[in-house]
Design brief:
Chain A is an alpha+beta fold. In chain A, 26% of the residues lie in helices and 25% in strands. Classes of the chains: A alpha+beta, B alpha+beta.
Chain lengths: 242, 297
């Protein structure tokens, strides 16, 4: 028993050593490069309507309580405007009606949560690529950041606000959309109303919900804890394709 | 001669030891690269197991098909209050349920307090709940396993070791009944010149069956890899099936390791361990007679 305890403590100490974690994280680059090289522009599998899950689990925030968001909900998102800014030539502010008029895509895909479960749903939304083209990315833009209305942690100073970053290959992927409909209904609050990202070749935590603002950026080191996302700042890999 | 356990394994308990006083002969049985990769693979599998259980704990239910039917898992570990309001851990398999309090579902945590989690803290890496860190260890050691296996296969193909030592011979196949009988009687060969036929079949089915199954079902869990290789999930029967098969394959691998270690002990732990560390092995069988054509090495 004592030996087991000592071994566990030693393993946990290894797990909290930055040097060890750095070595372990070297695998993330391999995962990203291998998947990137193999998949390139390949599409995630799409399913027939009969495969849609009767119960699609909502995870993470399911009902943000921020005052500004509550007001948007009350008015059915009539005042909602998606901001697209950062390293772009023409910053945009788009209402839901304008987003619905933009080039769109509908897809029935499998959503894989990092926890291990999967659900299948139908998503309709504006393709992210054409929106970014409309704003005109500056040459030094390398990532797209999504800033969300939800706060998962306890800090209300903004440091626990949900955010995510993706690279341009993913942003311009055929299936990358800002979804405003789920299963032929207006996207419900539990699943990220009014707008959530669908990034079909990565895990659920990359697919930011409650998107308020999008920025083209060169680097995400200056955002929050610098790892490129809410869960990334808390120990998850930035590349969530595995 | 008297037979010591560490030399002859379980045969020291046999009424009629099957080892006679034939002279011992030291042979170099396992090449360096095979020995090194054996240990690298063994260590990688251990880390993959304990970090994999950590990952499993994040959602300790298994399903068949593409998506999770949350109300119908085929395997489910958890905890619930019983009629008298006492919290108990359980393992459910289909419609059957076992009380597993103390180990599965509900166990004592590192601080001695009751801890509601699927697998207990003493078999997890890290020992506390951390899906993100479990994934870090798992993916790093998955690459270590890939490296170890790649070299292991090269080492086994070099100079035809696979064909010479691991492929069952015609005589092996004909003697399979007797080999099964010997195992059932717990009569193990010690210092045998060659692997016996059941051992060969076990090694080959792990190398070419179980290990590829666990690797492929693991890859199938990656949504990025699925886009690159859609055939993989079709082969697995959906991502949730792949996850279940990954878990069941792991379970089978753990069983193999237990049986493997039992055989090492049964067949003479010193001699067996010497051979997998130094390569040198004491053979006690008399040299083969040329009775059958084609079976000679």
């Amino acid at each position: 028993m004592a030996a087991t305890g000592a071994c566990l403590a030693a393993c946990d100490r290894l797990n909290s050593s930055p040097a060890v974690l750095k070595v372990l994280d070297s695998a993330e680059g391999l995962n990203r490069r291998l998947t990137g090289a193999l998949a390139r522009k390949a599409l995630a599998r799409e399913f027939p309507a009969s495969a849609i899950s009767p119960h699609f689990r909502a995870n993470g925030s399911t009902d943000p309580d921020k005052e500004s968001y509550r007001q948007l909900v009350e008015n059915n998102f009539a005042e909602y405007k998606l901001e697209i800014g950062g390293l772009v030539e023409r910053p945009l502010q788009l209402s839901l009606a304008e987003l619905r008029a933009a080039p769109s895509r509908t897809q029935i895909t499998r959503h894989d949560c990092v926890e291990g479960w999967s659900c299948i749903g139908k998503w309709q939304g504006a393709k992210l690529g054409p929106l970014l083209d409309r704003a005109g990315l500056k040459p030094n833009a390398r990532f797209i950041a999504f800033y969300c209305a939800d706060t998962l942690g306890e800090n209300l100073d903004g440091s626990d606000d949900y955010y995510e970053t993706i690279d341009l290959d993913d942003a311009y992927h055929e299936q990358t959309i800002l979804a405003y409909e789920m299963n032929d209904q207006v996207l419900p609050v539990a699943h990220g109303a009014p707008l959530r990202l669908r990034l079909e070749r990565q895990l659920g935590y990359k697919m930011a919900k409650y998107i308020m603002r999008i920025e083209a950026i060169e680097d995400f080191a200056h955002l929050a804890a610098g790892k490129g996302g809410y869960w990334e700042d808390r120990g998850y890999a930035w590349f969530a394709g595995i | 001669m008297t037979l010591k356990f560490w030399d002859g394994g379980l045969s020291c308990f046999a009424l009629k030891p099957s080892i006679n006083s034939s002279p011992r002969e030291l042979v170099y049985r396992i090449p360096l690269l095979v020995r090194m990769t054996h240990w690298l693979i063994a260590f990688a599998l251990l880390v993959l197991l304990v970090s994999g259980l950590q990952i499993f704990n994040a959602h300790p239910s298994l399903y068949w098909g593409s998506a999770s039917k949350f109300d119908r898992p085929f395997l489910d570990i958890g905890s619930a209050e019983n009629a008298s309001g006492e919290k108990r851990g359980y393992l459910r398999l289909g419609s059957r349920q076992w009380d597993t309090t103390g180990v599965l579902g509900l166990s004592k945590g590192g601080d001695g307090q009751a801890d509601a989690r699927a697998f207990p803290h003493w078999i997890l890496l890290p020992s506390y709940q951390s899906l993100g860190d479990g994934r870090r260890w798992h993916f790093f050691f998955a690459w270590c396993l890939a490296l170890g296996l790649g070299l292991y296969f090269v080492a086994n193909f070099i100079r035809g070791r696979l064909r010479r030592d691991l492929l069952p011979t015609g005589r092996d196949v004909r003697g399979i009944g007797r080999s099964v009988l010997d195992h059932l009687k717990f009569r193990f060969s010690h210092g045998a010149r060659h692997y016996n036929v059941l051992q060969k079949i076990a090694y080959l089915s792990v190398m070419f069956g179980l290990v590829p199954l666990v690797i492929l079902t693991g890859l199938a869990l990656s949504p990025g890899f699925d886009a690159a290789a859609p055939w993989l999930l079709i082969l697995c029967g959906g991502r949730q099936s792949a996850r279940s098969l990954h878990f069941l394959g792991t379970f089978a691998l753990v069983l193999f390791v237990f049986v493997h270690v039992f055989h090492v002990i049964a067949a003479g732990p010193i001699n067996e361990m010497r051979s997998i560390i130094t390569g040198w092995f004491f053979v006690r069988e008399p040299a083969e007679k040329t009775t059958e054509e084609g079976d000679l090495k």
